[in-house]
Amino acid sequence: MAAEPLTTQAGGTEMWDHDPAAPLWTCTGCGDDWPCAVRRRQLRAEFAGSIVSLRYYLAHHLVNAAEDLRHVPAGWLHNRFIAWTDRAADPPPYTSADILVNSYLLADSHSPDRFGRCPVCGDAVNCWVRLDPNGPGFLIPVP
To answer: Residue 60 and residue 86: Cα distance in Å, rounded?
Structure first.
C-alpha cells in the first residue's frame, strides 16, 4: 500500500513522506531501509553545505535505531545511517536483511562437524567464523 502524498510541488510533482518507522527503521514512503535513496537525496539538499549538521541529525537517529535494532552490528548501522554522507548518492546494493542472512549462511557453513572440525577450513581450532559461542570466531547475534 503506497503512502499518501504530503504535498504537491509546483509543476504537479508529488512529494511523499519518507520518514523512519520504528522499530524496524524502514521508510514510511517506500518501505526500504531508512534512510532510503529518496530521503538521502532530500537530506543532501536540505543540509547542503552543512555536513556536520547532517551527520548530527543522522547520528541522533542512529542512536535511536541501535536501541531497536540490537541484533544489527554497530558498523552496519554506521554505514546505513552515516557513512553514505561521504559517498555518492547511490544506495548500497544490499539491505541490512541481506547482510544478516548472508552472515548466518557463512557462519552456518563454518559450524563444526561431529568431530569439532570446520567443514570449510578443515581446522578444529583456528576457524575464523563459528556459530558456536565457544568457538574461536565471532558470534553472530540472534535477532
So the answer is: 18
